[in-house]
């Protein structure tokens, strides 16, 4: 999606301590082709999404492109289980064990591995933007004093805590149908 808009994109892989292989996309320069001069920014997607969420709008309305054009080194994260991060050192997405994880593992493994990788690649502390799930895992990691030595700032958008309080029948139905579709697409065992 990045290159179709005229931007360069690098693919990076990060392996977590529990064996999940995560995909990161890097936009190292803006549309002008001028290399980033500002610190790295890590964009973390929300619940039931992937990194494409930061790229769906026109370039002048998509945070990833806006930041790249403003001279930031943009990194787009994809948590385990998304279509871009289905690798593992020994498991397949068809294995039930592959899916035996919770948000705690995103806090304990995915976010630290991603932060460390971006920090090691750039040699700089990073800005972090989290949406929904990305906010939740950042709050948890920060509350445990993880990542603070690599963090420059954080913008935490639309935090989630509980999904059980949703009252709208339409929202409940949509989420159940969406989850069923996602399970089918990624072969999640029922």
Automatic annotation (TrEMBL):
Q: Which family does it belong to?
A: Belongs to the AB hydrolase superfamily. Lipase family.
What is the source species?
A: Solanum verrucosum
Domain of life per record: Eukaryota
User: What are the BP-aspect GO terms?
Assistant: lipid catabolic process
* Protein name per Swiss-Prot or TrEMBL: Partial AB-hydrolase lipase domain-containing protein
Which residues does the UniProt record annotate as the domain Partial AB-hydrolase lipase? 1-57
For molecular function, the Gene Ontology terms on record are: hydrolase activity
Stored Pfam families = Abhydro_lipase
Q: Which UniProt keywords apply?
A: Glycoprotein, Hydrolase, Lipid degradation, Lipid metabolism, Signal
């Amino acid at each position: 999606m990045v290159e179709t808009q005229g931007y360069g994109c690098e693919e990076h892989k990060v392996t977590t301590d529990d064996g999940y292989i995560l995909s990161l996309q890097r936009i190292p320069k803006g549309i002008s082709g001028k290399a980033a001069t500002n610190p790295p920014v890590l964009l973390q997607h929300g619940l039931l999404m992937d990194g494409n969420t930061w790229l769906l709008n026109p370039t002048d309305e998509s945070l990833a492109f806006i930041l790249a054009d403003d001279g930031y080194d943009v990194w787009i994260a994809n948590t385990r289980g998304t279509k871009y991060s289905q690798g593992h050192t020994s498991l397949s997405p068809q294995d039930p064990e592959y899916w035996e994880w919770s948000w705690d593992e995103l806090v304990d493994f995915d976010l630290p591995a991603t932060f460390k990788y971006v920090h090691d690649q750039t040699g700089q502390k990073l800005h972090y933007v989290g949406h929904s799930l990305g906010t939740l895992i950042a709050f948890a990691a920060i509350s445990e004093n993880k990542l603070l030595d690599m963090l420059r700032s954080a913008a935490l958008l639309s935090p989630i805590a509980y999904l059980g309080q949703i009252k709208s029948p339409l929202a409940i139905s949509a989420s159940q149908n969406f989850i069923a579709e996602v399970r089918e697409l990624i072969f999640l065992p029922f």
